[in-house]
TrEMBL record:
Leader peptide range in chain numbering: 1-23
Keywords for the protein's UniProt record, in alphabetical order: Signal
Protein name (record): SMP-30/Gluconolaconase/LRE-like region
InterPro entries documented for this protein: WD40/YVTN_repeat-like_dom_sf (IPR015943)
Region spans: Disordered: 134-162
Record organism: Blastopirellula retiformator
Amino acid sequence: MRRTMLCSLFVAASALCGGSVFAETIDLGLPEGYTAEVAAKGLSNPSGVAFSPSGTLTICDSADGRVLTLESGELKEYITGFPTEYWKVDAESGAKRFKLGPLSAVWLDGETLAVTNAGLKDGEETVVFFKGPGKAEAGEETNPVGPTSEDEADKGEGNLTGMTASKDGKTIYLAGQGADAKTWLLKVDVADKKLSPLFSADDNDIAINSPMATALWGDDAILALYSGAGGKDDGLIVEWNLESGKPTKQWTVPGLLDPMGFAVIPGTKKLAVVDNNWALTEVKPGKLAVVTLPEESGDAKVEVLTEKLRGPVACTFGPDGKLYIGQLGKEFDKNEGSVIAVSGLK
């Protein structure tokens, strides 16, 4: 009934039930020179956002178990039928919170889309490849990654997110959310469809866990964003050398409590970072910041542009130069989520 009502209300704006597109500006209290608009709304716990080589915005509508594309001003279902699960279940009340499905997507070329099948149990999740629109079950998947430690709580890697493809498209880097006893970045060998652990924070004396996003950094390194413990100012950005497999630099991000997404600002060595300000019971106001990394390890320079986002979880730059941010909206587990486009970052 609720979805039928939504479709009736928004049919003039969108041809897709459950998601709608609006050409409207939004006041985020940004500094002069910056503007923001709603690119898409009516999403449920949206997560990863990406662009195809032709410039098509691609959205992981996570709790609805699907991937959407924005084409000619309309949201369209691209891949449907992903399994979903609730991240937390209250032990006393049995209340289920924060429904998850596909969390990240990345285009490898004009027709190949890779998606994390993150609505499964830890140790069962995979990355799935698609050559066109269709059902999730029709994709070609990698292997899952099982336990990597002796800890009984370690069930294997899960909540796979934050994917980045190498420049040649042969490798995908991503973040894993398995047991905190062993925190991993992982990689996918695209040709063999093999998913395997890559870098362990714990093996390199990095105490902060919860990796959330990856980004290419120069020719021989990637950056990884670690959100740390919920509600604590302990987020971390680490530079990993792809040849040595070792962390070469680390930067704290003062004032950002739960950074979950970042993107390199085109033509610069600066980062756009979104801070979710995580809480399991509500969606709190989140931040967008421009982060400058010093030459040496230490505190990064953090310039907060707004504190009026609603649960931002991921971001990417589009071919139009705008930063596209997936955010949860006023409430999670409901169709309150949206993608916000911010102009002016440079």
